[in-house]
Amino acid sequence: MPTLDTATEAVQAQTPVDGEPCVLIKLGEVVLKGKNRELFERRLADNVRAATRGIARVDVIRRHGVFIVRTKDATVEKIDALAERISDVMGIVWAHRAWRVGKDVESVERAALELMAGRTGSFAVRTKRRDKRFPLTSTELDRQVGGKINDVYGLPVKLKGPDHTVSIEIDRDEAFVFSGGLPGQGGLPVGMSGRGLVLMSGGIDSPVAAYRMMRRGLRVDYLHFSGMPFTGPESIYKAYALVRELDKFQGGSRLFVVPFGKAQQQIKSSGADKLAVIAQRRLMLKTGEVLAHRLGGGTLITGDALGQVSSQTLTNITALDDAVELPILRPLIGMDKIEIMDQARRIRTLSISELPDEDCCTLLAPRRAETRAKIDDLRQIEKRLDVAELADQLAESVQEHRPVYGDS
Ligand code: ATP
Ligand code: MG
């Protein structure tokens, strides 16, 4: 995990730079133009304000390609906490803790010296000018500030692969000086692409699927089917913990839980046999569709990956698509389990997914599942069950939860 490589102690030990610490945000998807760009930036600024509400009241100042996040009485600790929180907000490529200083060489030098205080090893200075009227060129300022650091600390300059990089950015009204930063998630701000409903199992895949769709700007709600009353509530606790963790990427998450055990039993006694798993999955999707319509969602999202398990063959996926009219998004469709697990680890859902529970899908499942489900056969089963009515009832029976990131 990268850290804010800004030598916190060294900065505090000395007289503060006459400037203020702030978070400098680099935006993603810079190719967006015109109206989309405006939408992106506005949405992102709102999302940054919402995500940081629990830490401090912030001002988000929009500049070309970057945001500046300021807060009153900013301390280094508060700014670090803000940067860390902001690095989870979708649409951001970097969150830097930066010193915001006067737009003159002397102020920039002073900040750069403080950033490098107490450090060893080589360094490089890199300047970017968003205001081209600044009297020195980028290379001139690199040399000037680099020379100063070299004079004062005797550290060697190394342009390729330095141990430390001091970044200077000259903006419209001020300069920013920073070293290191936190990589963001990239993607688009949540809310830019509409709303969807994630079918959330408690396994490894569906949380990653949710993450990947949020990263494309979708705001998501979650739907979990528990085996209750024939299983304990463990799978619900897991789904809750997963959604609470994923809430850091969007805020305001809703988890809907359906007790699914009785419906599963009905499927089983309808003689579904080898088709039981696909019939169950179709019922989940149909229930999801009813709920999505109620919530204003335009899509369903699952953690299916082609061929991963017997229910995820191409034929079976086709039979699942047939169950609903809403599009089903499957962001993991072409991913290996190893890749999915790596991503789950990075977003911190893996350890929760690996907790033991009693998955509703193993309940009442046949010993051998059908890998080539026939849609006509499935429709026959569903006719006997009056499945539309059943999906309505299940969607009526949901319990709503609001897991909040950071709550215990
Ligand atoms: P996961 O790791 O997400 O559980 P999986 O490899 O176990 O996936 P399946 O059990 O076949 O795969 O489930 C495929 C998809 O169906 C899941 O990713 C999820 O979107 C949905 N799903 C399965 N079980 C449930 C459930 N109990 N509640 C809600 N959605 C479910
Ligand atoms: Mg599963």
UniProtKB/TrEMBL annotation:
It is found in: Cytoplasm. GO terms for molecular function: ATP binding; CCA tRNA nucleotidyltransferase activity; tRNA binding; tRNA-uracil-4 sulfurtransferase activity. ATP binds at residues 199-200, 224-225, 281, 303, 312. The keyword Nucleotide-binding applies. PROSITE patterns: THUMP. One of its GO terms (cellular component) is cytosol. Pathway: Cofactor biosynthesis; thiamine diphosphate biosynthesis. Coiled coil: none annotated. It catalyses: [ThiS sulfur-carrier protein]-C-terminal Gly-Gly-AMP + S-sulfanyl-L-cysteinyl-[cysteine desulfurase] + AH2 = [ThiS sulfur-carrier protein]-C-terminal-Gly-aminoethanethioate + L-cysteinyl-[cysteine desulfurase] + A + AMP + 2 H(+); [ThiI sulfur-carrier protein]-S-sulfanyl-L-cysteine + a uridine in tRNA + 2 reduced [2Fe-2S]-[ferredoxin] + ATP + H(+) = [ThiI sulfur-carrier protein]-L-cysteine + a 4-thiouridine in tRNA + 2 oxidized [2Fe-2S]-[ferredoxin] + AMP + diphosphate. Its EC number is 2.8.1.4. It is an enzyme of class 2 (transferase). Residues 80-181 form the THUMP domain. It holds the Pfam family THUMP. InterPro entries: Rossmann-like_a/b/a_fold (IPR014729), ThiI_AANH (IPR020536), ThiI_fer (IPR054173), ThiI_N (IPR049961), THUMP_dom (IPR004114), THUMP_ThiI (IPR049962), tRNA_STrfase (IPR003720), tRNA_sulfurtransferase_ThiI (IPR050102). Keywords: ATP-binding, Cytoplasm, Nucleotide-binding, RNA-binding, Thiamine biosynthesis, Transferase, tRNA-binding. GO terms for biological process: thiamine biosynthetic process; thiamine diphosphate biosynthetic process; thiazole biosynthetic process; tRNA 4-thiouridine biosynthesis. Catalyzes the ATP-dependent transfer of a sulfur to tRNA to produce 4-thiouridine in position 8 of tRNAs, which functions as a near-UV photosensor. Also catalyzes the transfer of sulfur to the sulfur carrier protein ThiS, forming ThiS-thiocarboxylate. This is a step in the synthesis of thiazole, in the thiamine biosynthesis pathway. The sulfur is donated as persulfide by IscS. Belongs to the ThiI family. This is Probable tRNA sulfurtransferase. It comes from Actinomadura rudentiformis.
